[in-house]
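A student in our group prepared the protein record below, which I am reviewing. Thanks in advance; the entry in question is below.
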Amino acid sequence: MEIPFPSLFAVAFAKLAGMGLPGTDIVAHTARQDQLPLTVEGRSLMESATFKQPVFVRDDGYGVQKIGCVMDAIEFLEEWPVERRGLLHAAASDACCSAYDGGKSVEAANKAFRTWARRVGVIEDVPVAPPWMTGPKISKVDQLLEGEG
């Protein structure tokens, strides 16, 4: 049986289980678990599902939560109360699940989730730290040490 478009989940499962996956370049092997590279198209599965820009949402139980990848978004959407779900929730869920399976881009999932979060009023605009706060630390001590060396 040939799988025309295996999902990221199917690829990850096949690699973790050491099985071959028909229709792909994944072949069966007997390597140890810690030696299995979970990569798709040269990128790790975590990299391929990570948002370029995280979304911060307000959650009654946890304060502010960082949604940094597709799986975080799926979990947040699944925990959303059923009675408060609507068409936009369904669209965001579909986009995230499709991105997780490789059917849509991660950025499309990010945009759908961000739109839903803004619409229901749970998005938090967390200011980005200015460059002077995150740049290299240079102090007088560092300059003195460099001068002595």
The longest helix spans residues 87-101. The CA atoms of residues 62 and 76 lie 11 Å apart. The helical segments are 8-17, 45-48, 70-79, 87-101, 106-120, 131-134, 140-148. The chain has a mean pLDDT of 74.
